[in-house]
Amino acid sequence: MEPVPGSGHTAEGGRGGLRGPNIQDNTVSGDATLSGPVVQAHGIHGGVHFHTAPEPAVATARQLLPAPPYFLGRESELGSLREMTGRLPTAPLLAVISGPAGVGKTALASSWLRGMGEQFPDGQFYADLRGHSATGSPAPPAEILAQFLRALGLTQVPQGLGELAALWRTRTAGRRIAVMLDNAVSAGQVRPLLPGTEGSLVAVTSRFRLAGLAVDGAVFQQLGVLDTEDTVELLSRRIGSDRVSREPEAAREVAALCAGLPLAVCVAAARMAVRPRQPLAAMALALGGDGGLDTLKVEGEPAVRAALDASYRLLEPDLALGYRQLGIIPVSVFSVRVAAAACGADPVEADRIVDALAEVNLLEDLGPDPVTGLDRFRFHDLVRAHAGALAEADESPEDRRRTVRRVVDLYLRTATAAEALLSPSHRTLRRDYACDREQPPPFGDATGALEWLDAERTHLMAVLRRAAGLGWDAAVWQLADAMWPLFLRLRPYDLWIEAHEAGLAAARRAGDPQGESRMLTSGGTGLRNVGRHDDAVAWFTRAAEAALRDQDSVAEAQALHGVGQSHRLAGRLTEARSFFVRALALREAAGYRRGAALTELCLGDVDLAEGNPERAIGPLSRARAVLLDVRDAYDAARALAHLARAHAGAGDYALAAEELGRALVEFEATGSVHWQGRVLEMLGETAAERGEGAEARGWYEQSLARYASVSADDVRRLEDRLGEAAR
């Protein structure tokens, strides 16, 4: 691969249609290459008759939490919930399960939904809305909708809440799905997440009644504490009936002190289970005393607090320290790798700590991540608050900062390793780590790296936000930079823009010109791709001015190219051409062949948009040749697709069809579904220009199938085009 000089990068694109609509090309390349083999197809002649790749399969989510192993005493509530399902499958069901913290709302909802899994073959979705998190803020509905849409197989989702909600309803229409929304804080947080399709079931858990959802047809199930007999039975199942039968009065006293809260019972029972010879009366005494920790306030739940205090007092010192450290990390769900970083331990020791805390019911084991296979653990929010309060009381501010910084550095190192695999030409800027301890990344190839970035995107952003709050400016912009392959490949535009706004502010505070330039160009690309063209022009212009000030001609060319591309996508062709010409001169002077080829590609695109296909053939042919020479398969295929449209505009439809067929094969090899859809659409346009309406509709239908998994805007446009063709 040709090395890329300088620190900046840009994105290429632009519609190659002849006097057609200005379709925004959100496919990003520039110096962040979508690597893949160079594939050249030969021998496609005359009419195009070839087999395209299979249409992308619709993903089926299976996200529900496992049913709790010790669940009892809720037959009445389960019966009521099962009775509610009588309205299915002819109408949607929205059920709100409310009750105090630790009463078992999540366990009840999980048991109910798990028992009906076969009724929802089209998807089972889960999201923690973080309404009662001790750290951070409740999950915004847009974040959850993007998560659900990605679970449906979409790799590109819109940015705004309204568009996301509309797309969610569209994609789930007619599908039998179950959705569990855990820890909701308000009706407004829940309402945009409702699919509303017949036969769908949405279960919401909250400490609040959420009466506002009544207007949405919700039914309500209030969950109270367990009665004494059920509490004793739960205790018996956890520690053994023999112990309970030997000390029935003490068992009832423990049950009373746990106040009928299953969480308190499970924590207390876990402590007793590891001390099989300890009398139950000793546990009752421990639950009844404050042990010096009664000043800790955990969401106003004294029974849970007492059980947690009693369990904490029996932890070995290293486990107690690990408990406190894990209580303050920036992520809500974590693997043993993250635990090792937080505790400053090696993975073997961290695994022992996590297992021991799970054994005494202080951690929940969620099982392996369905995508990455990494183990997953989390605290109940009450337990996390308890651990965090202990850390605040017992750990110095410096120690707490070191704990968090180790986790920040782990995420920065891992994201940087993913970046090096996925976008090696982008991996040029320095990294500043405060901790020396390293762990190997949990992936070994580009596919695994992208899967990790995708699975961890929410945690990466949580880490970035915590770093910003603590004033670690270098870590903020460097983490935004390391996440570039996530933004490039999967297009979470809300996160893309948020990360770069935070990164730009951090780089400026740090006085780091390289970091500022990278944030301006990367962030400008995100702004441009989401349609904020004028904002993108402003960001790229500032990058160009900084590069001119620093006499960095390569970075200046990158920024000028970005300005040109922003004008191009805004339909300002004259302005776009002037900036591309300036960028091309600088890139040629610097000997940056690939960059010059990309700019020539864009100049050819402008020629096409201006209705001058003959003039476009030269720059597009040169771009294609250079991009093949530097083994940039993705952009070489883009150049070929645009060149085909130029040949169609010049009247050589046979050559155009042959070149589009070859481009489709190359895009299938590089895995770009969006560009597969684009090329199929171009084949439809070429057929329509030849007067072959039926053939054109066939290509458009294949194009629509590709776009379905990646671009809601393109889906709407193709549906409109097919509708017009049918009239």
Walk me through the structure.
Helix 12 (317-326) packs across helix 15 and helix 19 packs antiparallel against helix 21. The protein has helices at residues 75-84, 105-114, 141-151, 161-172, 187-190, 228-239, 241-246, 248-257, 262-273, 280-288, 302-313, 317-326, 336-343, 347-359, 381-394, 397-422, 446-455, 457-469, 473-482, 484-490, 493-510, 513-529, 533-549, 553-569, 573-590, 593-609, 613-629, 633-649, 653-670, 673-689, 693-707, 712-726; strands at residues 93-98, 124-128, 178-184, 201-206, 219-222, 333-334, 364-368, 375-378. Helix 5 (187-190) links the parallel strand 3 and strand 4 (201-206). The protein has 727 residues and is mainly α. The strands form 2 sheets. Strands 2-3-4-1-5 form a 5-stranded parallel sheet, sandwiched between helices. The protein has a 3-stranded antiparallel sheet with strand order 6-8-7.
- CA-atom Rg in angstroms: 29 Å
Task: Figure out the total of helices.
Answer: 32
Compute the number of strand runs.
8
**End-to-end CA span:** 49 Å
**Uncertain spans, ≥5 residues at pLDDT below 50?**
1-57, 290-300
Q: Percent range for helical residues?
A: 55-70%
* Structural class category: mainly alpha
- The coarse overall form would be globular
Strands ordered across the widest β-sheet = 2-3-4-1-5
- The overall average pLDDT, rounded, is 85
Q: Beta-strand level of the residues, as a percent range?
A: 5-15%
Q: How is the main sheet built?
A: 5 strands, parallel
